[in-house]
């Protein structure tokens, strides 16, 4: 349970808020790389309550600019994407990816007016299938590497969906191991059957895992420990919280997976879902199967704006009849669609003064504490050495995993060991 002022501090991301300031100290995903076509349409996007356009120039370089033309505010999503910048279609002003106004053809030729204008342009880089932007006013830190960002593109798949609620509701889902056994029961039973294995089935049987957490420089890591049928062994699921908005866990087929819940504003979130395989390339068939299993199929699950067709207004298209026939626990097809439905069902910005947290919620509680404390430090003027930014906050070797292990072996000893 959080006091109202703590909930506000945790959730709100505008430029004048503590969390908004803190989040502006990190590189954040702003688009998938394949959303931006060289020389193609700039896309409108929102990040931390800022209206932005992201684009890839004809030479392949990406840029992120304030959405509204510095002349009189027309959206640069309508602009022509030319060499060296976007040309606003209203009066033809041309804005470079660095924010310089390069041409003002509606002004007299002798005008030097344009040199006095600097449009908001943000540092940007591309890795791991994502375009990352830095919205802070200080110098940007080194871009962070994750395990998947160091792999060839053939070894990972990236999905994106937009969620109609506050980012913390999404983030809390990805560091909440207990919900797997319940919300995703359909997946684990089916996956267990298909694999002919008991391993995934054992998750389903133990719906009250014991959670053990250790703080780290990047956030924390925690193990969800489940009974596995006999006293001598247990199922260990190790996950990481990487500040400010990343969860690393064992995803479909126990492949290392990452979810990022990136705030568009206080009531909307962009969810990026990465699944990686360090051993083998992920072929087209598997990509398609994952897309279907997660509920991420464009035109079926997602509309052209990457919003889900399952939404509050249509009751998330929950199939009560199939539930009645015993075919499904949730009545919602697609693992990520299940996540999104419960996250959105909490309301656009949940009042955490009304909740009742139990022992399975300790990772959620720890994340909130870490982020609230970091936002308070930010408000006190501490700008460096915040969680995930200080020395020792490397993330390039982290991954979540799931292993059946002897109960007597501390889970810490499994980290880095071969499966
Ligand atoms: S509004 Fe963009 S050039 Fe006039
Ligand atoms: Fe989930």
Structure, explained:
- It is a single chain.
- The protein is an alpha+beta fold.
- It has 2 domains: 27-133, Rieske Iron-sulfur Protein, CATH 2.102.10; 148-415, Alpha-Beta Complex (Naphthalene 1,2-dioxygenase Alpha Subunit, Chain A, domain 1).
- Helices cover 21% and strands 25% of the residues.
- The chain is built from 10 helices and 19 strands.
- The strands form 4 sheets. Strands 12, 13, 14, 15, 16, 17, 18 and 19 form an 8-stranded antiparallel sheet that branches. Strands 2-3-4-9 form a 4-stranded antiparallel sheet, with no helix packed on it. Strands 5-6-7-8 form a 4-stranded antiparallel sheet, with no helix packed on it.
- A hairpin with a 5-residue loop joins strand 16 (246-250) and strand 17 (256-265).
- Helix 5 runs antiparallel to helix 6 (199-205).
- The longest helix is centred in the last third of the chain and has 18 residues, at 362-379.
- The two termini are 38 Å apart.
- Mean pLDDT is 92; it is low at 191-202.
- Fe (ii) ion binds at residues 173, 179, 183-184, 339.
């Amino acid at each position: 349970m959080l006091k109202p002022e703590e909930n506000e501090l945790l959730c709100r991301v505008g430029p004048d808020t503590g969390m908004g300031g803190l989040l502006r100290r990190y590189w954040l995903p702003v688009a998938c790389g394949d959303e931006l076509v060289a020389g193609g349409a700039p896309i409108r996007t929102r990040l931390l309550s800022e209206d932005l356009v992201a684009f890839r120039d004809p030479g392949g370089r990406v840029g992120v600019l304030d959405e509204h033309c510095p002349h009189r505010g027309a959206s640069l999503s309508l602009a022509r994407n030319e060499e060296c910048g976007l040309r606003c279609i209203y009066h033809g002003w041309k804005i470079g990816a660095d924010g310089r106004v390069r041409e003002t053809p509606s002004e007299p030729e002798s005008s030097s007016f344009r040199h006095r204008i600097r449009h908001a342009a943000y540092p940007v880089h591309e890795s791991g299938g994502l375009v990352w932007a830095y919205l802070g006013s200080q110098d940007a830190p080194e871009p962070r590497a994750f395990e998947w960002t160091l792999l060839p593109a053939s070894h990972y798949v990236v999905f994106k969906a937009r969620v109609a609620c506050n980012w913390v509701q999404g983030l809390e889902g990805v560091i909440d191991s207990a919900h797997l056994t319940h919300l995703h029961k359909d997946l684990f039973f089916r996956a267990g059957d298909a694999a002919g294995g008991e391993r995934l089935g054992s998750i389903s049987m133990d719906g009250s895992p014991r959670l053990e957490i250790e703080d780290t420089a990047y956030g924390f890591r925690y193990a969800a420990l489940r009974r596995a049928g006999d006293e001598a062994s247990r199922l260990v699921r190790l996950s990481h919280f990487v500040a400010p908005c990343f969860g690393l866990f064992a995803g479909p087929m126990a492949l290392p997976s990452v979810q990022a819940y990136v705030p568009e504003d206080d009531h909307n979130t962009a969810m990026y879902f990465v699944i990686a395989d360090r051993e083998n390339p992920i072929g087209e068939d598997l990509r398609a199967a994952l897309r279907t299993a997660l509920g991420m199929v464009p035109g079926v699950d997602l509309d052209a704006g990457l919003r889900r067709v399952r939404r509050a207004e249509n009751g998330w298209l929950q199939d009560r009849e199939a539930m009645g026939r015993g075919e499904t626990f949730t009545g919602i097809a697609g693992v990520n669609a299940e996540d999104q439905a419960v996250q959105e069902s909490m309301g656009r910005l949940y009042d955490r003064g009304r909740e009742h947290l139990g022992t399975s919620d300790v990772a959620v509680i720890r994340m909130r504490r870490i982020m609230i404390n970091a936002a308070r430090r930010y408000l006190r003027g501490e700008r460096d050495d915040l969680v995930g930014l200080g020395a020792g906050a490397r993330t390039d070797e982290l991954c979540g995993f799931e292993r059946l292990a002897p109960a007597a072996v501390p889970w810490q000893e499994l980290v880095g060991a071969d499966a």
